[in-house]
Amino acid sequence: MGPQVQEKLRYLFRGKGRCFARPEVNSPRARDENDSPSDTNDTDTDYDTASEGQGYESDEFDRLLTRLQSLEAEEHPSGSADPPDAASKHWSAECEVRDWLKVRGPNYLRDRRKQAPAPAVMECVKVDVFSFDDGPCANVANARPESWLNRQRAARTDASASGRDEPWTFVFQFMNPGPPHVSIALYFRPAGRHAGRSLRDLLDAEGESPFGRALRRFVRGDRKERDARFKMVIALMEAPWALRQTVPRRPVILGKKFALSYHEGADYFAVDLDLSSSKFAERVYRSLKWCSKHSVEEIVLMIEPHTDDELPEAVLGAARLSKVGDETPRRLPPRVERLQVV
Known about the structure:
about 350 residues; alpha+beta; six-stranded mixed β-sheet; five-stranded antiparallel β-sheet; 14 helices; about 30% helix; globular; disordered C terminus
């Protein structure tokens, strides 16, 4: 068992399965709360800073075991000749979301009240960080053989023989402007009692639950429906002052600010965020890119409820990125089609 798995085991037994632990008083996250803005309105993109509360253990033991099994498979892939993954030390599935985030409560459309979130339905199982000299790579999870998703597919040699559906993967990719063009792809899979399920099985299990309705309407909706629902919150746990001033801890409906593209197959659904689609965001990125290697941020993804039967709001998935610098991305060669002589 490799060092990553040992580290997760130590966390498991020290925390007794609690993923959302109360922070230390002098921790960077606790100090950050003093700088957090207050909730001054009830717009679709506001948030409340959650009060200090006890962590909870529901489904967390199964969640961490699923993560440990994923790490074990990554450290001992069959027949793998991949180079060392520099990104592995720059991300984590363990987040402090319950300590700072509030989501829409069951009667939000009438009383505007929010509450602490339940555990995320899906868990971050991997983050790929790639760079490309020849341009951005849309749908990187499916388009590049080096992606974690394609390597998982290659490893599941017995899936077709067993007749089981492939586990469903939700992918969110930041496409950062270049050159080099940096791709940060976050992979999420159903966690806890839903671990290993396909999208069909997940929707069947959730049935007519609020999250099940929201997810079904999102994945089966058109572009307009998806753009109006897909929400992200970034919380800077550690960051230079300059970055804190430009990235508020506030939910954003991404389709209102950026060009999103959607890709789907039998075993995955992917959302690409093209940062260069917003000229303002691109200027900020280029001027503050240096801050990334000094920053730790938590990223939360949600599907915004629009009707009472989709409430309370659920966290789709969350991940922590830590000090991603210029040396972190794995540089990939141009795609084959771009090498062809016309």
